[in-house]
Amino acid sequence: MTFRNWAAAFATVFAFAASAHAQQFFRIGTGGTAGTYYPVGGMIANAVSQPGKIVATAQASNGSLANVNAIAGGSLEAGLSQADVATWAYTGTGAFEGKGKVTDLRMIANLYPESLHLVVKKGSGIRSVADLKGKRVALDEPGSGTLINARMVLAAWGVKESDIRPDYIKPNQAGDKLKDGSLDAFFFVGGAPAGAIAELASSGVGIELVPIAGAQADALRKSSPYFAVDTIPANTYKDVPAVQTLAVGAQLVTSAKLDTQTVYEITKAMYSEGAQKTLAAGHAKGRFITRENAVQGVGIPFHPGAEKFYKEAGLIK
């Protein structure tokens, strides 16, 4: 190889290495593929990716708790989390009691309300959470926000985990078991419509949503103010009437270790006009991902990059 060829080859390798180094990889932890986090996370990744600068990817995971732990451990740059889980992690309370605080956890944006679903077969006779005693109930997988919230709901109605026959599986597996009669009910916390529940309702198996309302729900909201009253509208799922339930905010969180400029660019891209149109058209919950909603229900500090954008937009002081 002549010196000129060697120099050219070296320059090419150097330029490639510099380009690769300039690119910021931004992995977003989502949830199971049958839930709402996965498609919404994918839409956000597409919206914030910038050729040559930021390569964002959505990764399936076990959900909120798993995402927060992965961010703390450095295997994810960001993740979707329920508002309650993010707050518990930062303050070392709730599910993080005795496990230490995740003090580097930072907020990028509050996204949309996640509805608490309690799904049963039509005509099951299960009309209330109290009716779950003695039943086979799926509570979702360890590491999910659903499991934590399901336990809170059961406790609010005076139902112990030992009072039911629990199963710890994802909602799509729970839907299959409900269909074949080996399960009586399952919980799921996520933006409505959730893929697994919509698929189940459209499969010819009649389903019902059990209300999570009344005095017990009011007491739960009083003790855990991140819960809000919510209604899943009629026909969100095929032939299912409107039902009152509770909701928590879905949030995009990250680590304080990420540099300010990267998070600023990502936040700015997510709320650009083009991204807003894409998000609104891509999923029923995408229309809630607005600048105004981004700063609502926030229980942990904003990342400086996100804070910079919201200050420029006049959303926070």
Distance between the termini: 61 Å
CATH class type of the largest domain: Alpha Beta
The arrangement of helices and strands along the chain is HEHEHEHEEHEHEHEHEEHHHH
Shape: globular
Number of domains: 2
Give an overview in words.
The structure is a single chain. By secondary structure, the protein is an alpha/beta fold. 39% of the residues lie in helices and 21% in strands. It is built from twelve helices and ten strands. Strands 1, 2, 3, 4, 5, 6, 7, 8, 9 and 10 form a ten-stranded mixed beta sheet that branches. The protein is globular and about 55 Å long. The termini are far apart. Residues 6-20 have low confidence and may be disordered.
Helix and strand arrangement:
Blueprint (H helix, E strand, L loop, with lengths): L2 H20 L1 E6 L7 H12 L5 E6 L4 H10 L4 E5 H9 L13 E17 L14 E3 L6 H12 L8 E3 L3 H10 L4 E6 L4 H8 L4 E3 L5 H9 L4 E5 L10 E13 L4 H11 L2 H10 L8 H4 L9 H9 L5
Parallel strand pairs: 1-2, 1-3, 5-6, 5-7
Antiparallel strand pairs: 3-10, 4-7, 4-8, 4-10, 9-10
Keywords: Signal
InterPro entries: TRAP_TAXI
Protein name: TAXI family TRAP transporter solute-binding subunit
